[in-house]
Amino acid sequence: MDNSDIGTGILPKIGLEQRLTRVWGRTVALGWTLIAVALITVGASSQVIGRPMIWIDDQRFGAVTLIMLVAATFAPVITLVTWSLLAGPWVPFLSLLVTGELILWAALDRHNSPGGALVTIFLAIAALLLSVASFAGRYRLSEVESSIITSN
Fold first, then answer.
1. How far apart are CA 140 and CA 85, in angstroms?
2. Which of 31, 60, 95, 150 has the greatest number of C-beta atoms within 10 Å?
């Protein structure tokens, strides 16, 4: 594994084993971007067929509530994508939390928009697989690096 950016100021050594490598950070960011695009597509298509998903239901909610629901849906995803690109710590765990949000939206939509809920569950499964895979993308410290960090 390429550790050329360790200690260069880009990634401080504290908590390095909890950070994704650059390649995995980009992979996670790309995966979540594609999930967000798919979620937008599902939301728009459910709106067109007249069975809108709860986070985009303009018939049930006012403009302010609708904006808050859309923000609650996509702000965590945008934050996760940004945090992944910046190689922030704990990305796999944050990814699991956002996956839980997708599961929550699917559960809330199962009666009003069952097709949208089914697609959202499939997106949540893809997100769960991406989250689990991202654990493999964390930096692995050698025994020497680990003992140096532990002794400091």
1. 18
2. 95
Q: Name the CA dihedral angle for 123, 126, 128, 131, rounded to a multiple of 10 degrees.
A: -120
Interatomic CA distance for residues 104 and 82, integer angstroms: 23
> Which range marks the domain in which residue 140 is found?
16-151
Q: What are phi and psi of 127, to 5 degrees?
A: -65, -40
Q: Is residue 1 part of a domain?
A: no
Residue 87 domain flag:
yes
Euclidean distance between CA atoms 7 and 5, whole angstroms: 6
**Residue 59 token pair:** 């018939």
The amino acid occupying position 88 is G
Q: Which residues pair with 19 in a beta bridge?
A: 89
Whether 143 maps to a domain, the answer reads yes
Amino acid code (one letter) for 149: I
Number of compact structural domains in the chain? 1
Report pLDDT digits (tens) over 73-132: 999 999 999 998 987 788 889 999 999 999 999 999 998 889 999 999 999 999 999 999
Helical packing angle, 91-109 and 63-85, nearest 10°: 150
Residue 79 CA to residue 150 CA, distance in Å, equals: 30
The answer to whether residue 6 sits within a structural domain is no
